Amino acid sequence: MSMNNKMNNKMNKPLRQNMSTTICRLPRLHPLFVALVVLGGLPVEALARDYFDPSFLGNNGAAVDLSQYETAGSTPEGTYLVDIYLNQTLMATRQVRFEKDDKGKVNPVLTKQELENMGVAVSRIPTMKALAPEKNVGNLSALIPSASTQLDLSQLRLNISVPQVDMNSRAGGYIDPKLWDEGIPAALFNYNLSGSKNWLKQQDGLDGGQSQSVFALLNGGFNAGAWRLRSTMSYSDYATSGMGMDVRTRSTQWRNTYLQRDIQRLRGELTLGEASTGGNIFD
Q1: Which intervals hold domain PapC N-terminal (predicted)?
Q2: Class (C level, CATH) for 78-179
């Protein structure tokens, strides 16, 4: 083959292009991962709040504000009969009104005078000095740092927490006489009754017999104004017959009968009648 033919053959062959293709395979995403990413992008408030449709209440449903029930742990406005605890100590049991403040938070209606009666050192707290005695303090944490109020609806208990540095120094268990309550007129009665009866078999030529006993313990009292009357009565009856004997004994005793009242001016208590000093006086 001549040189010209070789050149012609090379020229007649198609030219080849060097091209390479790279295919990238994306990892397969698990459906659970995709769901978590979607949920993570949602606003937290949309997940934590419920909505109550007022139309279910009838024609007047539109006039009812149900927004206070949409947040978990919120307290509906109103008046509740609650036990008031200050730093885990019971202070009083009374009606307390709960109202919303300017920020929409529901707080107990407590006055400066009421907090002072419970032992809060309002005269040493700069933010409370200018308040009138009957002024509602509103959000307590805004006036006293680290203070808080919390209503436990299940227990009907209002928990108030105030740092000890903002409290007056008092003996343990002390209750201000201004918080003393005479109570309501009432009659009290409590009893405990027990008894038994036994039959004795005939033996050693003696006829059989029986025995029986009854015991009753009664506690009673009466409240009228500041006075309290208390008394305790016990009654016992024991009888046995047969086997050559016939015995019966009865006993009635009155104990701890006394009349008592508080004297606020003396911060003490007056007792007339039978009384004894409790053992805690030696603690």
Answers
A1: 51-194
A2: alpha beta
